[in-house]
Structures are given as structure tokens and as C-alpha cells.
Amino acid sequence: MQDENSPLWLPRLVAHGGPRFLQIADALQAALVGGSLKPGDRLPPQRQLAAQLGVDLTTVTRAYDEARRRNLLEGRGARGTYVAAPKVQLTSVLDLSMNTPPPPDGVDFGDMLKQGLSQVLMQADAELLMTYHVCGGSDSARKAGAKWLEPMLGHMDCGELVVCPGAQAAIAALVLALTQPGDVVLAEPMAYPGLRAAVTQLGRRIIAVDADEHGMVPGMLEEACRQYKPGLVYLNPTLQNPTAITMPERRRQELASVAKRNHVRIIEDDPYWLLADAPPPPIARLAPEQVYYISTLSKCLTPGLRIAFVLIPDPGERERFLAALRSFALMDAPLTAALATQWIFDGSADRLTEGIRHEARLRHRMARDILAGRYGGVGDGLHAWLELPGYWNSLQLAHAAASEGIVVTPAEAFATGGGAVNAIRISLGSIQDRRRLQAGLQRLSHLLARRPGAFSTAAV
């Protein structure tokens, strides 16, 4: 408990305010901005501060390390730790543009990382973790992939899986292996930007198929298949990026039937399935012969692992895929693959995913409360889709938000063809501290309520 002699800047730690070390670092930064701390002020020794806050020494050490990373503190040896003279602007940008998992309460990610790597190094030869490996993943990594995918797809043969260095590499390899230059890839009008990048860079064409409130329209897919004879259809049916739509099971079955009639295969990119509330079965479970299924760990665990699992049942197609993958990504990183494998088998991955799911839902509730009628989320996942009032357009709004220190993603970034809808995507996990997220959402809400005024389309 804090006493009456505690420094004025000392934070009052709250249970749902994010990791405690970040609360302390944020309080230091706020005190420096607000003037209650000044450059040259001496900070309490770490043990003393830990006792005043009622936390362990490690928490304060991590807080001081984070504050040093922000250039707020400097050590002066035996004389102690002091507030540094400002080296950078202290008002940091609030980034609502990147779909990354939020830090879950009650999970010390740093400790989890240390323990996981310690287990990996105890069980594996360090030299083997630092050398070349066979493209497509080790037996143990593919077995871990089968375990990871079991909630989505049930029991499977791990020999049908390929381990990739991320979903983007998997998408590019599928396009390269299974289509020819000039071929068409069909997608919804709003889709993951990485798909468009891969398709166009590889000399293929992306064509938009109309969607409604349930996703891609089956009749429009049928018509597009007859007209364009596509090489592939790309779908992200669960918590779709960017619209956050989850396609109902009947629509999934209808689209699989259309694809089968027209002899075209589906890439099912499904990064958010484990974060969704009672999602329908993946299309790959409903029509396994029609689908290449991709599940990345980036959205449910951490992007730093750069691991995705790809289900390709046909051996010939799997070999073509591996040949394509090797042309630009020789292998997944053995160390991160081993860490992902360790976490999946020891239960750490499930615990982290559950914590992220819980934190994401708290953040969606916050966004719904602050943005009121403008909130376009569904209560889970990592992002929300905000349709804008008529007096804003999405590029104009993104420009105005950036001028106020908020980064959002306009609909144009996701458009696969034709005009973009008047909307923005906001990501709720990229700001680690929930209080800073709240401040960003409140600032965005105030901006949405104002008319453009000085901001003009010509300025964008």
C-alpha cells in the first residue's frame, strides 16, 4: 500500500489496467509530460519502489527497463537512476492500424518466453536449432500443427501439413504453385491486403466478387467462375479482415458447392477461428477436397513466431507447394518453430490464446461503449469495422486522425477491385496498455463527431 510520503507521480495500479510494469512506465512518462517529474530528478531505488507499490522486484525492473527504452531514464552507476533529458517527443502515436494480439492479464509473456526457450534448449541440440532444416517443418512441428488444428478440423494426418514462415508466405506459395501468370484469383471486395500484394507481384489478377452481410454471394461466385475461369478463390470466413463478418455454415457449404461444380479450389485463410465465439466449422471441414487451409499463430499467440500451418491433403500438390515455397522462403526458423512446438504441447499456447481471447473481448466492450452507434465489431477478434458518417470519407478521416496522433486503416487499403466502401478498420490489440487504447478510442470518437472543417479531400 502506498503511504503519504510516496512520490506524487507514483501510480495506483489497477487490476484491469494491463501489465503492471507498463502501468509504472506509463505513469513515469505521464509525470514527465505533466511536470511532476523533471529531467535530473532521482528516482527511488527499485527495491524501495517495489515495496511502496506492493509488487515484486522483477516488475519494477521491467518497468525501469521499459522507461529506458523510451529514453525517459538514465542510470548513473552507484548514484542511482535519474529522469533523462528528453531525446524524443514524449507524446507517442496511438496505432490502431495493426492486427496484433493484445497482452492478456495474468500472463507474464516475458517469463513464458524464458521458460519455453529454456525447455527447448534442454531438449534440443543448440547447433541443430541454428542450421538449415528441411522445408516444410520437422515431424515434431507438424505433429504440433495437427494438435493446434484439432479444434478446427478434428483429428488429421500430420503428414498432410506443411509448416510455413507465416501466412503471407503460405498464400504466396499457393498462388505461385497452383496458378499461372495471368490467371484470376477471386476474392471478396474487401480482403486482406497481403493477398492483393502476392497476386499482383506474381503476375496474376485479382477480381472482386460481391459480398453481403454473410460474406461472398454464391450466385455471384458462380457467375465469376463462368466468366473468368479462376485459378483460386480466396476466403477469410471467420471474423473476416477487415469487415469482421463471420460467414454462417450454410453460406460456407454453398460456396464450397459452387467451387466444386466449377472445378476451382479455395484458399481458406483462417487466422481468427480460435478467437471467435462459437464459430461455424471451417470450409475445410465441410469440403476437405476443395480447400487449402491456413492457420497462423500470429493472431492467437504472437507475430514474432512467424509460424503458420497449411493443410494440403494431396501429395502432388503438396510437393508443388513446397517447391514454390523454397523459391523464396527456404525454411521456417528452427528456433521459433521449436518454441511454438513446445508451447503447443505443454499447454502454454492454449493458456495464452485464452488470455488473448478474454482481453480482446474486454477491449471490444470498451470500443462499443466509447464509439456507441459507430462501433462495427462483433464482440471478439482483434479488429472492428467502422462505417463513417457521410461528412467524412475514409482517406480524409485517416489523414485527420494521423494529424491528431492516431493511426487507422482506411477501406482503400483492403479494396480488391471497384470502389471502396466508406469505412475504416481499427485494431484493438496493437496498443498494449488498455488505458492508452481507451484514450485513443475517445479521441477517435470526438473526431468522428466533428465535421471535417479544415481537413479537405485535397489535403489527403
TrEMBL record:
Residue ranges occupied by any HTH gntR-type domain in the UniProt entry: 18-86
- Family annotation (InterPro entries): Aminotransferase_I/II_large, HTH_trans_reg/aminotransferase, PyrdxlP-dep_Trfase, PyrdxlP-dep_Trfase_major, Tscrpt_reg_HTH_GntR, WH-like_DNA-bd_sf, WH_DNA-bd_sf
PROSITE patterns referenced in this protein's UniProt entry, alphabetically: HTH_GNTR
Please indicate which superkingdom the organism of origin belongs to: Bacteria
**Keyword set for this entry?**
DNA-binding, Pyridoxal phosphate, Transcription, Transcription regulation
Keyword DNA-binding appears in the UniProt entry:
yes
One Pfam family in the UniProt entry: GntR
Gene3D superfamilies from the xrefs? Type I PLP-dependent aspartate aminotransferase-like (Major domain) (3.40.640.10), Winged helix-like DNA-binding domain superfamily/Winged helix DNA-binding domain (1.10.10.10)
Q: CDD domains from the xrefs?
A: AAT_like, WHTH_GntR
Look up keyword Transmembrane helix and say if it applies: no
MF terms per GO, please? DNA binding
**SUPFAM superfamilies recorded:** PLP-dependent transferases (SSF53383), Winged helix' DNA-binding domain (SSF46785)
Family label: In the C-terminal section; belongs to the class-I pyridoxal-phosphate-dependent aminotransferase family.
This chain belongs to which protein, by name? DNA-binding transcriptional MocR family regulator
Which taxonomic lineage does the organism of this UniProt entry have?
A: Bacteria, Pseudomonadati, Pseudomonadota, Betaproteobacteria, Burkholderiales
